[in-house]
Amino acid sequence: MATQKPAESKVFLVTFFSKKVTPYFPTRAGWRQALRMTLAALLAYFSTDLIGLHHGYWAVITTLIIVQGSLGATIAAGISRMAGTAAGALMGGLGVLLLRLDTTVPEWLVLLIVIIPLALMASRPLFKLAPLSGALVLLLAGTGDMAFALSRVTEIGFGTVIGVLVALVVLPERATAILIEHCAAILEQLGAFAENVLAIGETPARDAITTKIGAAFAQIHGDLTEVQNERGARLLRSDPFPERLTRHLQRLRTDVSIVGRAMSLTPGQKPYPDLAAAIRSQFDSRASALRRRAPVTPSAPAMLDVPAESPLGFALATLQRELVELDDILNQWSASRHHGLIEPATLPTTPPT
C-alpha cells in the first residue's frame, strides 16, 4: 500500500488542478482577445494626440468596450456604439439648440425631453448607449462649450474605428470558428446525456447535463448572429453550413430526448451500458471531426440487442439516421477549401482545375 501513495497523490494533484485551477487560466482565444484589446487601447491612446483630440480617454474606453471575442461580435458592438452615439448626439444637439433659443427653459426640463425618447430607443440593443451620449452632449454643451461635447462624440467614433480595424487585422477570431467549437461541445454533451439515460445513470448528473445543453444552445444562437454580422461586412461567404449545422443539432437534441423518454416508458427497464458507450463514442467522434475539419470516420449503427419494434428501438433508429445525415453535412463542409471563411485577397476568380 505504501508504494501506491505517491501515485495516488499524483492523480489527486492532476485531478485537482484540471478541475479547480485550470478553468481559471486564460484559453488561447482569451490571450488573443487580450492582445487585441491591449493593442487597440494603446493605438487609440497615442493616435488621439497625433490628430489633436485632447481627451483621448473616450477613444480608449470605446476600444475596450467594443473589442470582443470574435470579429462579428466586435462589428456588432462597434455598430451599436456608433448608432447610440449618433442618436444621442442628435437629440442632445437639439436640446442644446432649444436652450440657446429660449434661455428661460430650465435645463432639467430639456434633459427630460432629450432622455425620454433616447431611453425608449435604448430598449433595442443597437441604441443602448444613446441616453449616455445624449446626456453627455446636452450637459457639456449646455454650458456653452459645444466644441468640447462634439469632440467627445468624435473620440468615440474614432475609438470604434480603431477597435474594428484591430479586430480585423490582429489575430482575427472568426465567428464561424467559435460557433464550430461550441457545436462540438454540444455534440459531446448530447453524447453524455444519451450515455446517462441508456446506462440509467444518476438523475442529478443528467439534470446538470441538460442545463449545460440549454446554455450551449443559447450560446450558439448568439454565435449565429455574429456570423451574420460578418456576412453583412462581406467578411464571410454566403455558406449555409452554420445554419444547417445548428438546425441539425436541434434535431439531435430532440432525438436524444426521445431516447430518454423511451427508456422511461418501460417500468424496470434494464440498463444498456454497452449501447450507452457506443452512442457516446459516436457523438465524441463527430465532435472531434468537427473540430479538426476532417471527414467523419464511418461507424456501424449502435443498436446491439435492442428490439427494433420497441419504442427504444424506434427512437435509436431515428437517432442513427440523424447521425448519418450529420455525417453528410460534416463531410461536405470538410471538403470545402475555405471552410466558410472568405479571404478576398486569395480567393480564386475561376474554379480550380
What does this structure look like?
The protein has helices at residues 5-21, 28-50, 57-66, 71-101, 107-121, 130-141, 146-169, 175-198, 203-232, 241-265, 273-292, 311-335. It is mainly α and 353 residues long. It folds into 2 domains: 28-169, no CATH class; 175-335, Four Helix Bundle (Hemerythrin (Met), subunit A) (Up-down Bundle), CATH 1.20.120. The longest helix has 31 residues, at 71-101. The radius of gyration is 27 Å and the shape is elongated.
The backbone outline, from C-alpha atoms, is elongated
The helix/strand class is mainly alpha
CATH architectural grouping of the largest domain: Up-down Bundle
What's the number of domains?
2
* Portion in helices: over 70%
Give a count of the beta strands, DSSP E runs of length 2 or more.
0
Tally the helices: 12
**The top level CATH class name of the largest domain:** Mainly Alpha
Distance between the termini: 67 Å
Listing every helix as H and every strand as E from the N terminus to the C terminus, the arrangement reads HHHHHHHHHHHH
Rg, nearest Å: 27 Å
> What profile does the largest beta sheet have?
none
CATH topology value of the largest domain? Four Helix Bundle (Hemerythrin (Met), subunit A)
DSSP strand content: under 5%
In round numbers, the mean pLDDT is 80
Low-pLDDT segments, ≥5 res: 338-353
Question: From the structure provided, what is the oligomeric state, counting identical versus distinct chains?
Answer: single chain
